[in-house]
């Protein structure tokens, strides 16, 4: 059995899509969800799937060694960042090199890097007048949003889009593709 740990800071709709897709899968399971926010929606979303969630304060995330220990104890094969809004520190990127992936709500390298997350990304896409946006699933290394790209999917940006309407279109793409890409990575 391959074991996934999901890191999430927010609502957790991607974590839910992944949990739903993998429910009943005999080869891959979501072992746990780690968060930096006790009040993040992801905790509730995991309850119907019986997936344990844990919150760690920012000191633990910045040190990262305790997170590595949790992941090793849980025998995690793949770390999936699904709306995780903290930088992954070096002890973790080193210990899990090639085994951490992230989803970003734009077509990287456009609109990536420090400060580019969630709504900030959609606002930047609209401000730039881009006619298309999309999602990028990529490996995580020391550089924010800089790791090797695994998968991208595109969608149009409409003239009357707001950050919210664009975010909704992006979420549809994310929920459709992210679980599939994870499954392919772990079964190939
Ligand atoms: C997703 O759109 C994800 O791409 C984005 O946060 C959202 C989380 O939604 N991630 C980033 O911006 C990372 N740079 P969710 O909590 O509903 O899954």
Strand order of the largest sheet: 3-2-1-4-5-6-7
What fold name stands as the CATH topology? Rossmann fold
> How many helix segments?
7
Strand content: 15-25%
- Based on Cα principal axes, name the global outline: globular
Largest β sheet strand count, sense and barrel closure? 7 strands, mixed
Question: Keywords for this structure?
Answer:
188 residues, Rossmann fold, globular, binds glycinamide ribonucleotide, alpha/beta, 38% helix, 7-stranded mixed beta sheet
Descriptive notes:
The structure is a single chain. 38% of the residues lie in helices and 22% in strands. It is built from seven helices and seven strands, in the order E-H-E-H-E-H-H-E-H-E-H-E-E-H. Strand 4, helix 5 and strand 5 form a beta-alpha-beta unit. It has one domain: Formyl transferase, N-terminal domain (Rossmann fold, 3-Layer(aba) Sandwich). With 188 residues, the protein is an alpha/beta fold. The structure holds glycinamide ribonucleotide. Glycinamide ribonucleotide (GAR) binds next to helix 1, strand 5 and helix 7. The site of glycinamide ribonucleotide has 17 residues, from helix 1, strand 5 and helix 7.
